[in-house]
Amino acid sequence: MEFKNLLIEASDGITTLTINRPKALNSLTGEVVQELECALYELDLDASVKAVVITGAGEKAFVAGADIKEMAEISAFDAHDFASKGQRLMLLMGKMRKPVIAAVNGFALGGGLELALACDFIYASEKAKFGFPEVGLGIIPGFGGTQNLPRLIGANRASELIFSGRVITAAKAHEWGIVNEVFAPEELLPKALATALEIAGKSPLGVRYAKDALVNGLNMTKEDGFRYESSLFGVLFATGDQREGMGAFIEKRPAEFTGK
Ligand code: DAK
After folding, report:
1. What is the pLDDT of residue 107?
2. With a threshold of 0.70, does the pTM exceed it?
3. How far is the CA of 213 from the centre of ligand 1 (A)?
4. Which class in CATH covers the domain with range 204-251?
5. Among residues 43, 60, 116, 169, which is most buried (max CB within 10 A)?
6. How confident is the model at residue 83 (pLDDT cuts 50, 70, 90)?
């Protein structure tokens, strides 16, 4: 599929998806959301792709939220359509069998922060800024922000950020646990790619099932989560990756995983 708003680069099993509308600070139109969903769906099915990095084009923004100019004009029907596309995208990112890393290079506001939160973890540039401006627009976060942020950093800090509409620095987002690490702007993408490459060297089935256990376990009681983890753990003993990983350790050689 041809994408009008995405740049896609692949190397060494890692695909970088760059949202490419820098003049509008990479804000999300319905078309961008749809393209992201199609691209991620294809990448999930492609066994040669081991991890995905999402970033924004230009110096200023990762994604400055939903496109307010488009959103201001839409009908209730189109708003419903936009919501279902967005929510499908966020759910897909959780269901994907490979990790998705957000490399936040600038503003991650509203829907842009929600997109980053739907990734498995976030790296940020020192210039990145995070916030939920929705209440200042007469709306609330609608792509899972009110659900994902409190699960990540607790209800008290999430409430402060969402109710105030305040924009915080990368350093504060790091202190609060939204961001794993903060880098100089020129180091952000290389560091995200290096981590993606490290993950790509591990068993694809191990990584896939670990993500499955983590993402799904968050919505379970601890006991159900433990039960879910043990069934995935058991299934891995029916795979070549488990035999290869343990065999390679015993034979003192690097493992060559096939993801089967
Ligand atoms: N939408 C459309 N255009 C945007 C934009 C946005 N979100 N953000 C920036 N732009 C455009 C600006 O209009 C400007 O365009 P021109 O005037 O040059 O044509 C260009 O990008 C550069 O922006 P600025 O000139 O404003 O740049 P500054 O450095 O002065 O300011 C800023 C940067 C990020 C502080 C500022 O642009 C800003 O406040 N942007 C808006 C941030 C924001 O409020 N984002 C939207 C949050 S609401 C839904 C689910 C989710 C959502 C909606 C629905 N459903 C379930 C239905 C999500 C909602 C949101 O994300």
Report:
1. 98
2. yes
3. 35
4. mainly alpha
5. 116
6. confident
